Amino acid sequence: MKIAIDGPASAGKSTISKKVAQALHYTYLDTGAMYRAATYLALKLGLDLNDASKISEHLAQAKIDFQPGPDNTQQVLLNGVDITATIRSEQITGAVSQVAALPEVRQTLVAQQRKIAAAKDIVMDGRDIGTTVLPDADVKIFMTASVAQRAQRRYLENTQKGMTSSLAEIKKDIELRDYKDSHRQVSPLKQASDAVLVDTSNLDIEQVTQKILAIIRQKMK
Ligand code: CDP
Ligand code: CDP
């Protein structure tokens, strides 16, 4: 089965997708981490973030890998180097939507995502999985929550990691990123017509996980 989980920033997609994949013994793919890795690469090489062909040229030669880390985490490697923590920095978060809007970058990463999903049971989360990457996915979820709730959750998470952005700054970043992600020309963030809407505003992680597992099991019958 192919499970597509899309939605705006900080709705809970990666946390819940990982749990759902574990429960079903499926592969989990965090496509946001791939766009973050592309952004990291462009910044590291000092490339112009509008130069789509230069960035995708380098990206096509780079290797993005995922491997299991401690405590059920997933590590992201770029050309064998662990960039898991670095790609969550405020600098990358602030630039990723610009890089993710470049059509050539999307073309390169979408091809890699489809290749990973081929012949595998997979839970993939992102912005365009149900609409573009896996339009024939067996289950499509559009996960959302209020901006206030999403900002509060990300603030808590960042504070625990020792990051210093204020709640207001995080809320502003989330709103700006959601705007850019939903208004870009190529595969914008949008609920697929056949996706099930799951609002997580008043649900904890376990409740959302169970809700999504129930939707998937219903489909498996
Ligand atoms: O976890 P968070 O919501 O902060 O973001 P993410 O899932 O790591 O994705 C980071 C950024 O990558 C998003 O804001 C989008 O600009 C981009 N992205 C995308 O364009 N398409 C995807 N399938 C996944 C992420
Ligand atoms: O992947 P996405 O950006 O959609 O969100 P996430 O990184 O999975 O979740 C953002 C934060 O919200 C994490 O710290 C989760 O632990 C938390 N969360 C929560 O408190 N309650 C939920 N129902 C879902 C996520």
Automatic annotation (TrEMBL):
Keywords, sorted A to Z: ATP-binding, Cytoplasm, Kinase, Nucleotide-binding, Transferase
GO CC field: cytosol
Which reaction(s) are listed as its catalytic activity? dCMP + ATP = dCDP + ADP; CMP + ATP = CDP + ADP
Major subcellular location class = cytoplasm
The protein's superkingdom reads: Bacteria
Domain (Cytidylate kinase) ranges: 3-217
Instruction: List the InterPro entries.
Output: Cytidylate_kin, Cytidylate_kinase_dom, P-loop_NTPase
Where in or outside the cell?
Answer: Cytoplasm
Q: What class of enzyme is it?
A: transferase
Which residues participate in ATP binding? 7-15
Read off the Pfam families from this record: Cytidylate_kin (PF02224)
Q: What is its EC number?
A: 2.7.4.25
Q: Which PANTHER family match?
A: CYTIDYLATE KINASE, CYTIDYLATE KINASE/PANTOATE-BETA-ALANINE LIGASE
According to UniProt, the name of this protein is: Cytidylate kinase
Whose protein is this, by species? Agrilactobacillus composti DSM 18527 = JCM 14202
